[in-house]
Amino acid sequence: MTLKFSGTYNVEAAEQVDRSSYQNSITCNVWLLDSTAVAFRVDRGCSGQTLLDLTFDFLELLEKDFFGLVYTFHQTTEGNLIVSSIGPDIFPLLLNLFSNRWHKWLDPTRKIRKQCKGEANFTFWFRVKFYVPDPVWLQEEYTRYQFFLQIRKDILDGRLPVPKSIATQLAGLALQSELGDYTAEECRPGYVNQFRFVQNQNADFEAQASEWHRKSR
């Protein structure tokens, strides 16, 4: 077999290919449960499953059936569903602007652009979709960690009402998970204030959470 190499390179043609490839793709920004975001560039005609698989691969998540992606929408005065073009900079405002009824699960079997009306930039949130009665049913430690992040976020955002006595105990366990065992040297006065667990967190709540942290060995 004889290989022939050309000594010229068509820069304009290459740029046209790059532009065409960019125009035929969309950007999907996915907010994860640890409040970080990752952007995926996918084909305009791809299905929701493609984005789910990219997210699962990024997280190296094995137990996938418990999770999904949601997007946000609102209604016009005519009652038509319109997907919001949401930027990461206004993400905190959504927690107050939209309730759960304004969130819709991304359908893996349908094309993304058929579900999300917009141009080429969409925002999704990675969430727990199905809960188990007992965490021991989850085989992977990392899966349990994602459940922990979801519950912690739901309590902080006010979507999951919890009595103060339970909330302080959960906060203590979260501190133990984040910082390890309580030590007076590492856990200086006011250290709990570095974390947010509930909406109306105050000094009394933080003192009780610290006490639960001390007991969680």
What does this protein look like?
A hairpin with a 5-residue loop joins strand 3 (67-75) and strand 4. The chain has a domain at 22-131: Ubiquitin-like (UB roll) (Roll). It is an alpha+beta fold and 217 residues long. Strands 1, 2, 3, 4, 5 and 6 form a 6-stranded mixed β-sheet that branches. It is built from 7 helices and 6 strands. It comes from Schistosoma bovis (Blood fluke). Keywords: Receptor. It holds the Pfam family FERM_M. Residues 26-217 form the FERM domain. This is Tyrosine-protein phosphatase non-receptor type 4.
Summed up, what is this model?
InterPro entries: Band_41_domain, FERM/acyl-CoA-bd_prot_sf, FERM_2, FERM_central, FERM_domain, FERM_N, Ubiquitin-like_domsf. The protein is of the alpha+beta class and 217 residues long.
